[in-house]
Fold this sequence. Notes:
Layout: H1 3-10, E1 19-26, E2 32-39, E3 42-47, E4 52-54, H2 63-69, E5 77-78, H3 87-93, E6 99-100, E7 105-109, H4 113-118, E8 120-122, H5 136-144, E9 151-155, H6 156-160, H7 164-167, E10 174-176, H8 179-186, H9 192-206, E11 226-229, E12 240-244, E13 247-248, E14 255-257, E15 263-269, H10 286-304
Parallel strand pairs: 4-15, 5-12
Antiparallel strand pairs: 1-2, 2-3, 6-13, 7-12, 8-9, 9-11, 10-11, 14-15
Amino acid sequence: MDVMSSAAARAGVEIHTDTRGSALVVDADGRVTGLRAVRFGDSVHYRARHAVVLTTGGFADNEAMVGDHAPALLGHGTVSDGLDDGSGILMATALGAATRRLAAVQAALAFVPLMACHGLIVNARGERFINEDVYPGRFSQAALLQPAPWWVILDEEGYDSMTPEQRMGVEPRFGAESASELARELGMPEGALERTLELYNEGARVGVDRVHHKAPRWLRELAPPFAAFAPMPAGGPHGLSGFTLGGLRTDADGRVQHVAGHAIRGLFAAGRAASGIHGEGYVSGTSLGDGTFFGRRAGRAAAAGV
Length: 306
Ligand SMILES: Cc1cc2nc3c(=O)[nH]c(=O)nc-3n(C[C@H](O)[C@H](O)[C@H](O)COP(=O)(O)OP(=O)(O)OC[C@H]3O[C@@H](n4cnc5c(N)ncnc54)[C@H](O)[C@@H]3O)c2cc1C
């Protein structure tokens, strides 16, 4: 028995695995009173003494929902257990539940952060789009709006300044004696990478990144030979994967809100089935933290029957 199961057993909670919720049951007054589910192929019906709390995760694994609401993630890898199909969100919206921030996503582009700081992150057109010395979740989010593939461009001095551990085993995908040769290898428009490097180097010489405001401590003229680094594999074709952050609109105790503005009685949600604290973007830990913090609040409120 794992830690969670034994804690649940002590609290008198029964866990039914291999049980898939398929629809919420409501009484004539619109109160949620139970759940229909399928367990080992059999239909089962759970009656809720107080309430149902949906903690079914997000919808990263539901391609149709991603296409409708969070298309930025289409074609990329998913950060999930493979079962984040949005079913809890759909069960609740079938009762008129409101949703919030369905387009918000977490994105992870697996560049080695220190390598990015020493070099440039560029899009498929050889253009920079962000200061490289940011939290990786932030350059990943920015990359979603840029044409893929994305690259880190680094010179020999930058590469040599890192220890093998700092490079995390990542080797150059392409190397070249000049920026134009590298740009040709990468299929970039003629002259684009050269212009990006010229502008960056111009700023580096005076210690100012006028376009993206990278901290002066990272600014150094990049000189040939150059190398291009791809992100580490992460499920999708371009090394980016993510999950959805939006979900059901709840109050701070997890009560699911109806589109008409009132709470749906007997229905709570937490974790990625709900929209929680996230706006645009994501910081590591905020999804687990959001799920546990609001999950506990939702559980308490549901048990109290309020
Ligand atoms: C590799 C990896 C690394 C991560 N790192 C971090 C991190 O550092 N920090 C962070 O905050 N987050 C991180 N996350 C994300 C975080 O794990 C999730 O956002 C979080 O687990 C969501 O919690 P949840 O309880 O809402 O949903 P989930 O953990 O997705 O759980 C939902 C569960 O509901 C089940 N389910 C779905 N539909 C039904 C249904 N109809 N009936 C019954 N069961 C159903 C699913 O099978 C699943 O078991 C990471 C995720 C992965 C995969």
